[in-house]
Design brief:
With 316 residues, chain A is mostly helical. Chain A contains 15 helices and no strands. Chain A has one domain (5-299): ABC transporter involved in vitamin B12 uptake, BtuC (Orthogonal Bundle). Chain B has 370 residues and is mostly helical. The two termini of chain B are 21 Å apart. Classes of the chains: A mainly alpha (316), B mainly alpha (370). At the A-B interface, α4, α5, α12, α14 and α15 of A face α5, α6, α13 and α15 of B.
């Protein structure tokens, strides 16, 4: 039963959905403050490479995740400085971050310079539950075989949800994203909120990247995340900027990312070229985005009102 | 305390001083990166500039590197000017290369003189076709074109790999047993090689000249026609444009098609000028599309500035490629490009705003000890 294709695909959906979930939750916080950060792919790659470096040097996975979060946040700091303090164009700045940090930039430079490429990982995340649990029908592979990163991400969804909906800080954050003028008049420090949540977004993206290098792959190769950062941005739109739907969407997109590997490994539909399966996550992202954006336009569900625009107090 | 005030007029000299200053500032920041990772900054820069610009061979190689960048730079500039963020230049160039190579193979053996124009038209059609997908989705379903155009880059890369590595397609060389084991593209017929021009001791690829012609065309289109005027109005204020009765949807389709067509011609130029076959590895490894974004932003979307910046970044890319090795890690040029772009973005503040150093009364009080 645990070997049936459906169970394997569902298990891979959770596995490949987890990095997407971390990155998307982070981007959700950033965008809720009115800052659009398209640099997720770059921040994930830096998180992945620095997390891998940390585990090779310290042998501690906790330290590695912390380093990945820090590395992602430091990349986000560049973006925050440019768009909040210097009022630069958020789209171009985000793209600049991908070019700076991405597959042909700093992440590759660091990977080569610290000679991490193709090295076997000293330690990697492994299942937390005992073997007997992992062999339970259906739930075994889908839930109990997963690593701590998965369970931590569930806690994070709840925490982010409560933070946004049930705390003073979350209310202020939403005010900053929807109407920075009113938030400013209420005495909320708009710039501080935007900085803090852009940095948090970077830290989450860094951890998302580390999911690949510390658990799924576990090694470092250039461009390891293969577009996951972009899918995460699409995921935020898919989830209408809400953490709950984010979880659902992450596993949906996770399934699209996992299916190529599962089908190829099992020789399912082997007459169809593998490229067709590999294109699946990208094509599905486009299709889902089309469905969501036309539905979103109709139901007027959508982005924080000030998303993408700098806030300048004396100008209206 | 520093106060930031909006400038009422933008001085002309700043428009040149700021990009130049950005490049200088980027070198400064790069010094820090190199120093922090244990490399000698001055030695690295010296080698970089030598390998990029300071010999006949280096200059010729840099012109070859600059050629695709002019196309992808123009591709980004044309669309970004309307606030239409087509970051699919990478994929559009790949599809242009596929179409261009098909035209080259098909026309080269029969009607030789047609191959060069045929490849240009085919490349343009391929690039435009791919760009129209995000354009239609944006115009009719209001889908974010940034993500859709980017996703198609990955799809285009998979398609080109499939054509050469995983199928016996029209583009693949199947003439010899070795070609069956080591997949590669069919060599293009001689008639499909684009001509070169010799100026002094420099060899100028036809694609480079074509790029400059297209830059001139784009400049004329955007500064001298009603179409260009409307594109700029839509870019600066979509609301004003719709009140004035401008047809935004049509413009989205037209501008994206133009943008994609330019990148597509860049792909055809890769086949005709440089590679003389459909070369998936070389094309996908070079990241021409992403560099184009850096170039367009640095050129502030001015088509002639795109050509100049493309030459500078082309030299950098060529140098990075030549020097790649253990003491010169790959990725260095990408870091450099990112830093230049960051500095240019920061510098934009200086063009739009004026910094004034003012002493607030509170600050003066705090400075005087009681």
């Amino acid at each position: 039963m645990n070997n049936s294709v459906l169970v394997v695909v569902l298990a891979s959906a959770v596995t490949y959905g987890t990095p997407l979930l971390y990155a998307a939750l982070g981007e959700l916080l950033t965008e809720r403050s009115g800052v659009l950060n398209l640099g997720v792919e770059g921040m994930m790659l830096i998180g992945a490479v620095m997390g891998f470096w940390a585990v090779q040097h310290t042998g501690s996975l906790t330290a590695a995740v912390a380093v990945a979060a820090l590395a992602g946040a430091s990349m986000a700091l560049i973006h925050a400085f440019l768009v909040v303090t210097l009022r630069a164009n958020q789209i171009v700045s985000g793209l600049a971050l991908v070019i700076f940090a991405g597959a042909a930039g700093l992440s590759s430079y660091l990977g080569n310079d610290l000679s991490l490429a193709d090295e076997p990982a000293r330690r990697a995340f492994s299942p937390v539950f005992p073997k007997s649990w992992q062999n339970v029908d259906i739930l075994g592979p889908i839930v109990f075989k997963q690593s701590a990163l998965v369970f931590a991400s569930w806690i994070l969804v709840v925490v982010v949800g409560l933070y946004l909906g049930r705390t003073r800080l979350g209310l202020n954050l939403r005010a900053v994203g929807e109407s920075p003028e009113s938030a400013d008049a209420m005495g909320i420090n708009v710039a501080a909120y935007r900085y803090a949540h852009t940095l948090a977004g970077g830290a989450f993206a860094g951890v998302g990247g580390a999911c690949f290098s510390l658990w799924i792959t576990p090694q470092w190769v250039d461009g390891l995340t293969a577009g996951a950062g972009w899918i995460a941005i699409a995921l935020v739109i898919f989830a209408f900027w809400r953490p709950g739907p984010c979880l659902l969407g992450a596993y949906l997109f996770g399934a699209f990312s996992g299916i190529p590997f599962t089908f190829q490994a099992r020789g399912i539909l082997s007459s169809i070229p593998p490229e067709l399966f590999q294109a699946l996550p990208y094509v599905m992202t486009v299709l889902v985005l089309v469905a969501v954006s036309s539905a979103g336009a109709r139901r007027r569900l959508g982005a924080p009102a000030s998303l993408g625009t700098p806030y300048v107090r004396e100008e209206r | 305390m520093i106060r930031i005030e909006r400038r009422l007029t933008q001085p002309k000299w700043l428009v040149i001083a700021v990009p130049a200053g950005s490049i200088a500032a980027a070198f400064l920041l790069m010094t820090i990166v190199l120093f922090a990772t244990g490399h000698a900054p001055l030695h690295t820069f010296d080698r970089l500039i030598r390998a990029g610009f300071l010999s006949k061979q280096a200059l010729n190689d840099s012109l070859v590197s600059a050629t695709p960048l002019i196309f992808t730079g123009l591709c980004a500039a044309v669309a970004f000017r309307m606030q239409l963020f087509n970051i699919g230049g990478e994929g559009q160039l790949l599809v242009g290369a596929i179409f261009g190579a098909a035209a080259g193979i098909a026309l080269g053996n029969h009607t030789g003189w047609l191959s060069v124009p045929g490849m240009i038209v085919a490349g343009a059609a391929g690039g435009a076709a791919l760009a129209l997908i995000p354009a239609i989705l944006r115009a009719y379903f209001s889908t974010n074109e940034i993500i859709t155009s980017l996703m198609l880059n990955y799809v285009a890369a998979l398609v080109i790999n499939y054509l050469i590595f995983d199928s016996e397609s029209y583009w693949r060389d199947t003439s010899s047993p070795t070609a069956k084991v080591f997949p590669q593209g069919k060599p293009l017929p001689d008639a499909a090689s684009w001509p070169v021009t010799h100026v002094a001791s420099l060899v100028i690829p036809f694609g480079l000249l074509l790029g400059i012609v297209i830059a001139t065309f784009v400049w004329l289109l955007y500064t001298r026609t009603r179409f260009g005027f409307e594109v700029q109005v839509i870019g600066d204020s979509p609301r004003a444009a719709s009140y004035a009765g401008m047809r935004t949807r049509r413009k989205i389709l037209a501008v994206m098609a133009l943008s994609g067509a330019i990148a597509g011609i860049g792909g055809a130029s890769q086949d005709g000028d440089i590679r003389h076959t459909l070369d998936p590895r070389g094309l996908t490894a070079a990241n021409y599309g992403y560099s184009g974004i850096v170039i367009a932003a640095l050129a502030r979307y001015n088509p002639f500035a795109v050509c100049i910046v493309a030459f500078l970044l082309g030299g950098l890319q060529n140098a990075g490629f030549t020097l790649q090795g253990a003491d010169f890690p790959s990725g260095l040029v990408g870091v450099m490009q990112g830093l230049i772009l960051f500095c240019a973005l920061g510098g934009e503040l200086l063009i739009r705003y004026r910094l004034r150093f003012v002493r607030t009364p509170r600050a003066t009080e705090a400075e005087v000890p009681a």
